[in-house]
Design a protein that fits this description.
heterodimer, A: alpha+beta, five-stranded mixed beta sheet, 5 strands, about 20% helix, globular, B: alpha+beta, Aldehyde Oxidoreductase, domain 3, Molybdopterin biosynthesis moea protein, domain 2, Molybdopterin biosynthesis moeA protein, domain 3, six-stranded mixed beta sheet, about 30% strand
Chain lengths: ~80, ~575
């Protein structure tokens, strides 16, 4: 699955996107576990991050498939 | 309700037309149309417009621009979703939302919302609620301008393509081979890198000027700054400014400030009278000569805030890196450093410092590949594989974990159909799917290209000249595409001297030397006896494309060529 980072998360991870290969489709906690393993710096941002799946905010019980486009959405500030 | 959403990198127009006006013949109310009623006359009584403008202050600090970033696909959907939801409570006829992204200078519009409704009440309520919700939910971010971000680089659109393969058994043409390589090498994800490590990498976001340069009006002379419209006879000196001083103040008529060359002027709308053109008596001045020039470098004269400095896709050379440094972009978003593994094969290969026995040759390919890779930022690991397949397999199994993280694998030799050749089985054993294994080109016909996920591999024919040619048209193309830059291009030139050769059923990439002649590159073909003959490489700086079945070319004939060193200058 492809995971996208925006705004300050690009600085925290040092990249704008990664390909993540997981043995089975994770739920939100499983996805976070894999992300934190790779980018410990994300831990500080986690309380403020919402997960998006295929261009919509993900439901709390969402399961993420290998073909999904996932995005970590930090607090927004448009307008 | 009609909804139009735009995310744009360009300034938002001063005047936006209500969207329903252009469709005046259409009923706005879908229900009415479905009910078969007569189309209602267009009846929006309110066209409410809102513009959000970048303020000159952010968290108490003066700024000259803000930088907006969006997740465009999701922002578009989220805006539409919010509008649908809110319009259920406040029914309106049409909404148009334009959000600008990238660097937006102070005073310019960042968001425009236009709402059409029968009466103003619904439009005002919808607008107010929409703006509140936008600031909570729509994935758009702003920060003080550091660099502009033209998101959605080519990489995010092309990943996931699985283009069709050529028949791996049939030789493909040179053009087919190049287009297969391009389509199988999408740009790798971007990384942020310090400037000192970014040389040679491809910039992945357009970097714009974060502020006007110069940021304030500066004096170009040693002299006295006065109001540009000052007609006073006698002028009083009220302050003195050195080059590093910053003392803003509004000058009144009859006041002057002593300034040094380069000093930041205290306000705008001034001119600087050269010190040679005044008579000074203590704190008083009289101007003795009136010039028409202002003697000022105006704010934004070099660059206006928000204008692009280095564009996405540019290879970062020394000059561009210096420009990024001057704009405060210390960690540009760039292509990653590639990890390349190169295996040489063949029992006849000996190191360059040894004397070959009959049947042996010195290894020139290792240093050739290392040298050719210099212009592509990468980590290179080189090793030699024994010719026995079983032994080679064992050796590879010890570094297999390393091979899983590489971007590019190069295998020299073993690409023809001789008994001992094993590049193809080796690549297949490592999980590479062979895209093509022969190209109708000489030298370099037995070139193998394989793909395994986001890793790619080339089996290069063992002869050194073939190596040089295959690297230039195939490997260099792959490296440029992985980096997200421009792949090497064939250019047009003119032959110097004629070509007399036996017709060959394959295209030839002929080693040549090009030189400028007026504004045309003139190419002298270099003699080469076989694909093992690299004596021509002492002079070669180009490969000339000679068509298949070509019996000869006249002096002055137009030819396509691939430069193998950077071309400086224009006219091509």
């Amino acid at each position: 699955m492809r995971v996208l980072f925006f705004a300050q998360l690009k600085d925290a991870t040092g990249c704008d996107a990664i390909e993540l290969a997981l043995p089975s489709p994770p739920d939100g906690d499983g996805l976070w576990a894999a992300l934190l393993l790779r980018f410990p710096a994300l831990a500080a941002h986690r309380p403020n991050i919402r997960l998006a799946r295929n261009w919509e905010y993900a439901a709390p019980d969402a399961i993420f498939a290998a073909t999904d486009e996932i995005a970590l959405i930090p607090p927004v500030s448009g307008g | 309700m009609e909804i139009e959403v735009q995310l744009t990198g360009f300034p938002i127009a001063e005047k936006i037309f209500p969207p329903v006006v252009a469709r005046a013949s259409r009923p706005f109310d879908e229900n009415q149309k479905l009910a078969g009623g007569t189309p209602a006359p267009l009846s929006h009584g309110a066209w409410l417009e809102f513009r959000g403008v970048v303020r000159g202050e952010e968290k108490g600090q003066t700024i000259s621009a803000l930088e907006y970033e969006a997740y465009p696909e999701m922002a578009d959907r989220e805006i539409r979703r919010l509008l649908q939801e809110i319009s259920a409570r406040h029914p309106c006829q049409a909404v148009k939302v334009i959000h600008r992204v990238g660097v937006i200078p102070v005073g310019e519009t960042s968001i425009y919302v236009g709402v059409a409704s029968p009466h103003r009440g619904e439009a005002i309520a919808l607008l107010a609620e929409f703006m509140d919700r936008l600031k909570q939910d729509v994935p758009i971010w702003k920060r003080r301008a550091r660099s502009a971000e033209h998101r959605l680089g080519a990489n995010q659109n092309t990943v996931g393509n699985t283009p069709s393969r050529c028949s791996a058994l049939q030789p493909c043409s040179l053009d087919e081979a190049i287009s297969q390589i391009v389509s199988h090498c999408p740009p790798l994800p971007s990384v942020r890198a310090p400037l000192a490590e970014a040389f040679g990498r491809v910039l992945r976001e357009t970097v714009c000027a974060p502020e006007d340069l110069p940021p304030v009006d500066r004096s170009t002379r040693d002299g006295y700054a006065i109001r540009a419209d000052d007609a006073a006879e006698i002028i009083s000196i009220v302050d003195t400014l050195h080059a590093a001083d910053w003392k803003p103040r509004q000058l009144k008529s009859g006041e002057a400030v002593r300034v040094a060359t380069g000093a930041a002027l205290p306000c705008e709308g001034l001119r600087v009278v050269m010190q040679e053109h005044v008579e000074r008596d203590g704190d008083k001045l009289r101007i003795t000569k009136h010039e028409s020039t202002l003697n000022i470098r105006k704010r934004g004269e070099d660059v206006k805030a928000g204008s692009p400095l280095v564009t996405s896709g540019a290879r970062l050379d020394a000059g561009r890196l210096a420009l990024l440094a001057s704009a405060g972009c210390a960690q540009p978003l760039v292509s990653p450093r590639l990890h390349v593994v190169h295996f040489t094969t063949g029992d006849e290969i000996i190191p360059p410092d040894q004397t070959p026995k009959p049947g042996q040759i010195r290894d020139s390919n290792s240093i050739l590949i290392r040298g050719l890779l210099q212009e592509f930022p990468c980590e290179l690991t080189q090793s030699h594989l024994p010719e026995d397949f079983e032994t080679a397999k064992q050796l590879i199994s010890t570094i297999n974990h390393q091979l899983s993280t590489i971007n590019l694998l190069l295998v020299s030799g073993g690409a023809s159909v001789g008994e001992k050749d094993f590049t193809r089985p080796l690549l297949e054993m490592l999980g590479f799917e062979i895209v093509f294994s022969q190209v109708n080109v000489r030298p370099g016909r037995p070139l193998i290209f394989g793909v395994n996920g986001n890793r790619i591999a080339f089996g290069l024919p063992g002869n050194p000249l073939s190596h040089f040619v295959c690297f230039r048209f195939a490997v260099a193309t792959a490296l440029a595409c992985l980096a997200g830059g421009e792949p090497p291009k064939f250019l047009r030139g003119q032959l110097a001297g004629k070509l007399d050769d036996k017709p060959c059923p394959r295209e030839t990439l002929w080693p040549a030397r090009w030189e400028w002649n007026d504004s045309t590159p003139r190419l002298r073909l270099l003699p080469w006896a076989s694909s093992g003959d690299i004596t021509c490489l002492t002079a070669a700086n180009a490969l000339v494309r000679v068509p298949a079945h070509c019996a000869g070319l006249e002096d002055g004939a137009k030819v396509d060529f691939l430069p193998t060193t950077p071309i400086i200058g224009g006219g091509l």
